[in-house]
Design brief:
TIM Barrel, globular
């Protein structure tokens, strides 16, 4: 397994757009420096095309160390005709950076059949292009996703390859869809990336602001979780995706925390 960190960990959600860009560049320059295997490049919705280009230029300096790119969260939430141009450009940038995976949030739908039809339409029109660029499109198990195990099963049965699953560990605990709800064979073949965060039963504070815990502050049993990953032969990416209060201190702590809780047999095999 590779241990990665999202550049989002360096970003204060309440900061200005300009500060978000500065913090993203700081993250690019520090994550690998402090011993991580690679980076998840997070692209905020609020970035302009010019700011995205600055971010990509900075990332190109460590080409090959960008393991995943987290697409702007609204990428698949637009009208269908407006999805393909920006997504195609992102696929090309991902390929140029020698990254293999894009993380996408699924579009919000109130009806499961409508959701599947929408995803089929999107993938029918973009998946071959992604595969030609050696990029796998992964969908994240966000809280609003209707029946994630069934959703992923439908997609994977239709397309077989070229797509993958990103699992956010917090959402396994904050929704009814824990890891044991997913078929083992589905995870073994399609799980490509895991977002690592902790959870204590409350994702938002009393004012409605998103809460991010330091690893170990919540009730997630990481040793047990990593053991289950080893049991399905997971050998891809563990991506820390939270918000650091003390950037470098928390960066070092988080990597050490993961190593401490990984099964010794997985460290030996890695």
């Amino acid at each position: 397994m590779k241990i990665s960190c999202s550049t989002a960990a360096f970003i204060d959600p309440s900061s200005s757009i300009e500060q978000k860009l500065k913090d993203s560049i700081e993250a690019i320059n520090n994550i690998v420096k402090y011993g991580y295997d690679g980076i998840e490049l997070f692209i905020p919705n609020v970035f302009s095309d010019e700011q995205k280009e600055i971010l990509f230029q900075e990332a190109s300096k460590i080409k090959g160390k960008i393991l995943t790119i987290h697409a702007p969260k609204n990428t698949l939430h637009r009208p269908l005709k407006e999805i393909f141009s920006p997504l195609s450009k992102l696929i090309k940038k991902t390929s140029e950076l020698e990254a293999n995976y894009i993380v996408l949030h699924p579009p919000f739908q109130k009806n499961f059949k409508s959701l599947i039809r929408t995803m089929f339409y999107i993938f029918d029109n973009i998946l071959l292009f992604a595969k030609r660029n050696n990029v796998t499109l992964t969908i994240e198990n966000v809280p609003y996703l209707l029946d994630p195990p069934e959703f992923f099963k439908n997609l994977c049965e239709k397309y077989k390859d070229g797509l993958g699953i990103t699992i956010d560990i917090e959402y396994l605990y904050s929704t009814p869809y824990s890891l044991d709800k997913y078929p083992k064979e589905l995870l073994s073949k399609y799980l490509k990336n895991i977002h690592i965060r902790d959870y204590d039963g409350q994702s938002f504070d009393e004012e409605g602001n998103r809460r991010y815990l330091k690893l170990g502050e919540g009730f997630i049993n990481f040793k047990e979780f990593f053991e289950r990953l080893f049991d399905i032969n997971y050998d891809s990416i563990l991506t820390i995706e939270t918000v650091f209060n003390n950037k470098i201190e928390d960066l070092i702590y988080s990597k050490e925390f993961i190593i401490k809780h990984l099964p010794q047999k997985s460290l030996a095999s890695g």
